[in-house]
What we know:
By secondary structure, this protein is mainly β. The protein has 4 helices and 28 strands.
Amino acid sequence: MIDANSQFFAILTNVGMAKQANADALGIPWLLTQMGVGDANPGGLADPPNPVPSASQTRLLNEWRRKPLNQLKIDPVNPAVIIAEQIIPADEGGKWIREIGLYDADGDLVAVANCAPSFKPLLSQGSGRTQIVRMNFIVTSTGNIQLKIDPSVVLATRGYVDETVVAGLARLGFKQSVRAAAPVAVVLSGLQTIDGVALVPGDRVLVPFQAAAKDNGIYVVAAGAWVRSADADLSAEVAASMLVPVEDGAVNGDSLWQLVTNGPIVLGTTALTFEMLAGPTGIVAGTYRSVTVDKKGRVTAGTNPNSLAGYEIAPASQAEAVGMTNDTKPLTPKGLGQALASAKGILRATVSGTLVIPPGISTIYASGCAGGGGGGSCPGGSSACATGGSGGGAGQSVMRLPIAVTQGQVIPYTVGAAGVGSANYLSPATAGGSTMLGEAGALLKLLGGGAGITGSNAAGAIGGPFGGVGYPSGSDADDVIPNNHGGAGGHGASGPFGGGGARSRGGSAGGGGTLVNRTAHGFGAGGGGAGGYYLSGSGYGSPGGNGSPGLLIIEW
């Protein structure tokens, strides 16, 4: 339909309307191929009237040029409008253009138009130009019109080249960079600061974390509502594995993002998932012995462990497991070394701390002991010490006790301290400290070994008759031995993680007892008792030996 006020317009001819109707009805493709131009002045008048297109026309009034189309496409604004274009080079012309005709593959005039008179000069006339002639005409349907031209016989305008290049680039997987990438969901309108970047109109922004994933993508910033960028506003331009570089930002600056949603993709309907392919992870530059890597191969954490436990490597022997040296010669419980070597995770504690239960763990296995008690001494003063002190007791112990736990549970633990041996009658020996798991030992409580008892002043009496109350107890001291020498101290008790201290022999004339390795070995054992001194001497017996500290081993 033509506006009554229109002076220049294009219409389908009767032949053109019939051919389109036939194409719509039968589905036969309709191929438009050539454009003709004329001056509508067959009589050579000095001032001819403007022609008026007629549907009954089968030819132009005075056609002077007919060539293949340069471009044929659907108007992107109105899909019912066909745009046909032809380029007239600088070396053709010398005539007026007042009428335009469109021909199909059969050579029939199917559309006709008039235009404002335009003189197309020749170079030989002193003025030359390349002229574009374009016809826009309305059809009932574009479904059966073949939008096809022969690229070998046409010229391309700069606008056509630019449009074609931009359209081709838009379909590539690598997009033009964006100014910033939003680390969280944002409002898709107005000027705002995203990832520390103050945005201005025209900035491109990647929004990968919108509440509705279908809204994710590349947008252009505006004072009002944002729109998707021209290179990513069609489904064909948003393809799987699309890459988007990010220029600036506190969190996402200097990064590269990838669309990991597989096709087919319908923009505005399909949920789009973007992931950072390369970029900062918050780990400072440096050398790390142990690193954590994400699925993209990026380092997300780094540490520098200085022990086997830091690498989560089970030690080869019990001595390595608990940090013992070779000269301590601990007792190794049967089967514990194999259990440590096969455990998924191991905590070996000689000092108190806190355990956080790892993911997926519902049972832990506890082994260990409390601290051993100190050994007793013989008393001082003016009286003779006929007998020594008794040995300290060993700390209570346990082997691979199963304990129910929950993932993420925070459990404090205490490792029992070693009991201190008695220095003399003024400072009695102390018991070993308890080893506990959980507040106040709610999950596990191992009692410390008891202290040794100070020996008797009376000649011939039994020193330390009770021994150290532990698990087991230390042994009693001996009576006075022949030749008026003082009795020997008691042995410190041994436990499964270490041996007790040896007792001291009786004192010689005028001096204290002979020291014989009274300190306990390993973990949890009791200290040895001190021997008495000579009845007629004026010296003192030796002090009792120290117990050994406790130990806690947790496997999961």
